[in-house]
C-alpha cells in the first residue's frame, strides 16, 4: 500500500484535528422543531441509498414542501413519477439505511438526515399526496436517526446560487448524451425537441 494513502482511522483523525464544539452540538437524533421548520421550507433533496451493486444518490423535488413531517422521528417522502429505474427503491429493499441532504436555493447551509426507510403503499396515504389527481407510486416512511445542518463552505466555494457565474454553454444536452452513448442509435435532436413538452405532461 503506498505510504501516501490513509488507511486507518487514527491517521485520518490526525489529518483533520478535533471536531469543533458547534459541529457536535448541532446533531440531534430527532427532528428538533428548528430543523422541522427548516425542512418545511425545502423543495429539493438528494437521496442516498446502498444496495448489492453499490451506493446511489438521486434527486428528489416537489412544489414544496418536499416531505411531510409526521412526527419528531418520522418523515414522509412521496415517490413521484420518474424514469422507472427505481434504483433507490431497489436498494431500500436490500438495505433500509438511507440519507437525505435538503437544499434551499439562496441558502448556504444544508440539512442532513440519516435514517431507515420503508416503502408504504397505503391507499389513504397515497391519496393524501395526490397532485392534480395523480398519486405517487409509493411513499417512503423515514425513521429518523440523526439530523444536523451542514455549514455553507461548499456552497460558498462553488458559488452555486450565483447563476450568472455559471457558463452552461458547453454542457451536453440529454439528447446529445443519449446519441453519444448509443453511437447514434437514438436521435438526440428529436429527443431534446420533444423533452420539454414531455416533462410538462408527465411531471406528476
Automatic annotation (TrEMBL):
It comes from the Bacteria. Pfam families: PNPOx_N. InterPro entries: Pyridox_Oxase_FMN-dep, Pyridox_Oxase_N, Split_barrel_FMN-bd. Residues 35-151 form the Pyridoxamine 5'-phosphate oxidase N-terminal domain. This is Pyridoxamine 5'-phosphate oxidase family protein.
